[in-house]
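User: Can you recover a sequence for this backbone? Please restate the input before giving your answer.

Assistant: Of course. Working from this structure:
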């Protein structure tokens, strides 16, 4: 399905829409969690091109469709289920004008973790690939620079234990960082109602990422003033170490709900959050019989997570 967007290097009729600050910040955070930046060799010849791709579950398609509508970037393709995976929808951005426009948005609303380094290499590739004119074709170019950038990008995607400096330092969480946070948590957070003992259920928010993105989690935890970042942990032989930002204490749970009420999650995750927030409120009241209410909300949250089928 092709939205209104660039075709063969041409911008949309009437130009690209302006992207509101709240949407630009959300997009940067969401891409930090979900996107794959690519510099790839074309199927024919020796030329190279740039692209960005991400996939979501088909029952969360309205989230990505809304981002496509707000940006007029790229195209959407359904992906059938494989093995235990659910059907998905894939967002591809690969036209020259679209890549250039995406770079303009991300220059204004920066990525902040490990993926900011990948973006810097990808951005250099976009600049060289387009060379000032997204409509021009240069079949006789020496593509060595793009091959070099491709190898650099692939190296950056491998695990490195060193911390990743962040790009950009907005002063206030409730400005650009709040919008980034809502996008990142939409992509990465897990909202749970864990049974920690017989008859006792505890709300918990967690974010699980590779250990070389620890600095990003520590910055987000510090700016939101909630939770702790723990680890590194190693799941098994050959796996990359990971870290977890956990929000568990009652004071932290109350604070994170205030943040997420102002900077809303989107898509299917917002539906989960509405149930989870009710459980936080029940736990904060500490009233008699609250465990029965929490058990019911835990069942509601389990149902909300189940795959509900593709959205037309």
């Amino acid at each position: 399905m092709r939205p209104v967007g660039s075709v063969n290097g041409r911008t949309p009729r009437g130009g690209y829409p302006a992207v509101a600050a709240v949407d630009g910040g959300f997009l940067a955070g969401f891409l930090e969690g979900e996107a794959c930046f690519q510099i790839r060799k074309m199927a024919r010849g020796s030329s190279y091109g740039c692209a960005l791709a991400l996939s979501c579950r088909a029952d969360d398609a309205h989230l990505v469709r809304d981002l496509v509508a707000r940006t007029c970037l790229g195209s959407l393709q359904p992906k059938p289920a494989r093995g235990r995976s659910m059907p998905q929808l894939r967002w591809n951005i690969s036209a020259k004008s679209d890549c250039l426009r995406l770079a303009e948005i991300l220059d204004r609303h920066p990525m902040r973790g490990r993926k900011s380094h990948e973006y810097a290499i990808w951005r250099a590739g976009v600049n060289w690939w387009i060379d000032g004119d997204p409509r021009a074709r240069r079949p006789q170019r020496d593509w060595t620079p793009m091959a070099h950038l491709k190898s650099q990008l692939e190296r950056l995607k491998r695990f490195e234990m060193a911390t990743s400096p962040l790009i950009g330092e907005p002063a206030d969480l409730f400005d650009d960082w709040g919008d980034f946070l809502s996008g990142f948590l939409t992509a990465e957070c897990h909202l749970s109602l864990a049974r920690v003992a017989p008859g006792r259920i505890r709300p918990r928010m967690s974010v699980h990422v590779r250990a070389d993105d620890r600095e990003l989690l520590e910055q987000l935890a510090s700016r939101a003033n909630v939770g702790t970042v723990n680890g590194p942990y190693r799941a098994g032989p050959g796996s990359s170490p990971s870290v977890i930002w956990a929000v568990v204490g009652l004071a932290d749970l109350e604070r994170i709900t205030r943040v997420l009420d102002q900077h809303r999650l989107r898509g299917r995750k917002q539906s989960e959050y509405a149930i989870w927030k009710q459980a936080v409120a029940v736990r904060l009241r500490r009233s008699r019989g609250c465990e029965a209410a929490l058990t019911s909300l835990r069942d509601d949250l389990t149902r909300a997570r189940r795959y509900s089928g593709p959205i037309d």
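That completes the design. The domain at 173-305 is CATH 3.10.28.10 (Endonuclease I-creI).
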